[in-house]
Amino acid sequence: MRINGFSGMDIDSMVTSMMTAKRAPLNKLNQQKQTLEWTRDSYRELNTKIVQFSQKMKDMNQSAAMNTQKSTLTGNTTAIKAEANADASSTPMSVVVNKLATKSNMQTSTGLRTAGSSTADATKNTTLEQIAGGSASDTYELNINDKTITFLKTDTISAVIGRINSEGANVTATFDEISGKFSITAKDYGDSNNIKLTGADKQVKSSTLMDLFQISSTDVKGAEKGEVIVTNTADSSSKTYNPDKNSLVVNGVSLTLLETTGTTGPAKITTQSDPTKAMETIKSFVDTYNDLLSTFNTKLSEQKYRDFPPLTADQRKDMKEDEIKQWETKAKSGLLKNDSIISSAVSSMRMTISSKLGDLSSVGITTGQYYENGKLQINEEKLKAALTTDPDKVLNIFQGSSDDVTSKPLFSELRSKLDTTLDMFVKKAGTSKFDTNGSMTFKTESVMGDQLKGYNRRITDLTSRLKDAETRYYKQFSAMESAMSKYQSQSSNLTNLLK
Prior knowledge:
By secondary structure, this protein is α+β, with helices and mostly antiparallel strands. It is built from 13 helices and 15 strands.
């Protein structure tokens, strides 16, 4: 706090007044920096919407998203689950599951029990020492699938399970608290994933943990294949499948095997055209496309209020919260008006649609009136009819055809065009091409990043010079006060001499 001298002058007010004019360039720099930061934030907002749209199109490009087939399951509906793929045929099928595939596994023949107990009384909190009793070793080893895992006698069954499951041996250990049985099962199906009792040196060797749990090498069971009989009920032809896992695809229908059919009888599958899923996917695409295009067009035509620059700190002090919010809404408006990157993105999107407009129109997708700026519209009845009678035609427009490698499907073309826009955002604003929620920090190496560095340097330099000027003013006033005090003292002395 500054203390004014005897002169009675308000030095603080005088210095503040003198500094106000000098601070104008600094306020201007801070306002320009704020505008640049707001503009960069606007780029990131659009960047995020593009990434989200691009990811959505990538998901839509999967066959499941544009599936026009549906399988209906009757008969034994608990033994299998059936889901039609996009290429599913209408062949009616009957499925009998005689045997499920199994994974390689080993298990204790009886429940684990503590030393001296006649019943399976072990729990997950039981230690290896409690199971071994007085003959407990300090450590125990498990040699499995080229891994040697060592345990302490103080480890609980729960800890043993955790270690086995986390050591990368491609197995899963479990403990059934009801039966007290401990088991280890291969993570994957098939003979190639059979459990091997080998250690880190890849040599077969005994495991003291298995000895403790009374599991022998003969208790290790290899993976077994399943047995499924599928019958074409239209001509009664049959085929037996022996999958090494509990799933297979027949006539384009994905079958998940849940249990054997047994005496309940076979599961029956019929497949027919169902455009519902593809309709939902296409409608979602159109809605998202229109939303993104509308956002771009709004930014390009947004009114710019040049009389509403960012508020300075002093201006904010004298305003209410609502007034600040209203001011900043106008200050942020029009930051991307007529922006070249966004204009280019809009042109690319509309040109991509225009190149497919003939095909799109034939299946019920058109552009609106000229004043709607390229907005897409759907004739749902026409689209549904196209998906029902000629689904391949519709799918080829969006996803392309495997028979035509030169085709340019809509999803991949739009993603490619928008990827170019993202590249320009990254270069100019330092955004990320993988930011789906606007949370990633800006890259410092960008055009706007360099501009912000420049503003920060200039603001720091100017702030330092202003502090020096303020200090100089106070020193000058202090010198003036000292001179006036000296003059007054001399004047009083002379007056006293004349009396």
